[in-house]
Each structure stands twice: as structure tokens, then as C-alpha cells.
Write a structure and sequence with these properties.
Elements: E1 3-6, H1 10-21, E2 30-33, H2 37-47, E3 50-51, H3 55-60, E4 64-67, H4 74-80, H5 82-85, E5 91-94, H6 101-108, E6 114-119, E7 128-134, H7 140-151, E8 154-158, H8 164-191, H9 196-216, H10 221-228, H11 234-244, H12 247-265
Parallel strand pairs: 1-2, 1-4, 2-3, 4-5, 5-6, 7-8
Antiparallel strand pairs: 6-7
Helix pairs in contact: 8-9, 8-12
């Protein structure tokens, strides 16, 4: 099975890197093209991928084709590859923010199987979180294959399209917010004499373990706090101080701002 990428920007490269690391595809089964010849040809050469001369060629040679361009050029690209998709044999996978299944179908025709996705950057290390929504034409083995792409590089969750905005805040933007939290823990460690490298490693590993614990447990995160916070102990003191400083409110306000900005950009 071949997979093509139209556009080789940051997210496309993260997906490709994750797929190669997971050995989900061989390099020679990955076909790429973008509007800048020097970019996609050198990228393909570095990773032993196949460089296609046009978007139409990528689509023609692929079982799955990933639309990984910016929203402003996506309609023109879809119109360009419409004929190659017309027979319904190639599955179109979009990672373009704000581009609905209905809008894509209007551009490429009603018979094309389409998977709308919203992956986050952690797909590069096989720990991604991807929202997916399929149209009615994507069923059976084609659906399994399309979902398998993102299952190989993380976890997927099926969502209604009107929930993609909040997903973007919780999964797409949150790596930056978690990075900020880890860096804040690290800076506190430096305050008490650790090197920045030591403190960052400690904070990052502790955060990773906590996330894995939440995923493994059937308890809500707040219930797990009681396993760490002994009555009258230092953890409770720290939690109360963070809450007094408005940690939870700040996080919710951050998500509110992210969703509001995403909604504004999509209108």
C-alpha cells in the first residue's frame, strides 16, 4: 500500500517520521510533492522517499493521499486532483484545519472516501492524539486502512466535526501548555539548586508517568491526587498554594482563549 503527501510542512513531516519509526510504511511506499520543488525533492532524498512531479501524480500513485497544505490553498489543490480521485479508489485524508467533509466532497465529488483528521505533533514519536471523522463513502477495509495510519503513530478518537475545535485546544495546542508546565516545574527545581537539565528530566519523566497512570487507571485524575497527597503533607500544601494562585482557572481560561481564537479563524 502506498501513501502520498501533498505538502511536506511540519505536521506532514511529523506524520511521515512517525510512520517510518513505527515501520508502518517502507520509505519507497511514501510519495511526496509540494509547491516548492527544492523542499520536497531534498526531503525525499534525505529519507529515501519517492518524489512525485505533481499533486496529480501523487494522487494517481497512492492508495491513501494526505492533504497537508494550508487552508487557503486547499480548495485549489482539491480541484487540481479531482479527476484522479473520481473513481473512488483512493482515500483522501485531510489534516487541514477547518476544512469540513462537506466542503471537501463539494470540491472532489460525492463518491470519494474521505477521512478528516486533526493530529497533534506527538505523532512524530508514536505518541500522537488524532481526532477523526469519516464520510459515508469511507467504510470497510478502506476505513480500517485510513485509521491504521494514525493508529500506528498514536491514539485516535472519533469525534463529530463540531467538536474538532475543542479537540484542537485539548490535544493540538496542549503540548505547548504541558511544555510550559514542565518548564515551570524545572525552573522551580533550578531555584533549589538543580541544574536546568536535571530539573527538566525529572519534571518531564514525572509528567510522562502521571499521564500513563491516568490512561491506565479507570479513575478520574482528581481521584489519583489522593494517592499522592497525604493528609497534612507537603503535596497538599503545594496543591493549595497552586489553587490559591489560580492554576485550574488559568488552564480553563487558556482553553477558552484557544477555542475562541480557533472559532474566529474558521469564520
Amino acid at each position: 500500500m502506498n501513501i502520498g503527501f501533498i505538502g511536506v510542512g511540519g505536521m506532514a513531516q511529523a506524520i511521515i517520521g512517525g510512520l517510518l519509526q513505527a515501520k508502518a510504511f517502507l520509505p519507497e511506499d511514501i510519495i511526496v510533492h509540494s509547491h516548492r520543488r527544492e523542499s520536497y525533492e531534498s526531503y525525499a532524498t534525505r529519507h529515501n522517499l519517492v518524489a512525485a512531479p505533481t499533486n496529480a501524480a501523487v494522487t494517481r500513485e497512492s492508495d491513501l493521499v494526505v492533504l497537508a497544505v494550508t487552508p487557503n490553498v486547499a480548495p485549489a489543490v482539491l480541484t487540481e486532483i479531482k479527476d484522479e480521485l473520481a473513481d473512488g479508489q483512493t482515500t483522501l485524508i485531510s489534516i487541514v484545519a477547518g476544512l469540513s467533509l462537506a466542503a471537501m466532497a463539494q470540491l472532489v465529488g460525492p463518491n470519494v472516501p474521505i477521512l478528516r483528521t486533526l493530529p497533534n505533533v506527538n505523532v512524530e514519536i508514536g505518541a500522537g492524539m488524532t481526532a477523526v471523522a469519516a464520510n459515508d463513502q469511507l467504510t470497510g477495509g478502506k476505513l480500517t486502512s485510513a485509521l491504521g495510519v494514525f493508529g500506528a503513530i498514536g491514539t485516535t478518537t472519533e469525534l463529530a466535526e463540531d467538536q474538532f475545535g475543542v479537540f484542537s485546544a485539548l490535544a493540538g495546542s496542549s503540548p505547548a501548555y504541558v511544555d510550559l508546565f514542565i518548564d515551570s516545574l524545572s525552573r522551580a527545581g533550578v531555584k533549589y539548586g538543580l541544574t536546568k537539565q536535571q530539573a527538566t528530566q525529572i519534571a518531564a519523566q514525572a509528567t510522562l508517568g502521571s499521564a500513563k497512570m491516568i490512561l491506565k487507571s479507570d479513575k478520574i485524575p482528581f481521584a489519583l491526587i489522593d494517592q499522592v497527597a497525604s493528609p497534612g503533607g507537603s503535596t497538599v500544601a503545594g496543591l493549595l498554594a497552586m489553587e490559591e494562585a489560580g492554576l485550574m482557572t488559568a488552564v480553563v481560561k487558556g482553553i477558552d482563549a484557544t477555542v475562541a481564537k480557533d472559532n474566529a479563524n474558521s469564520h
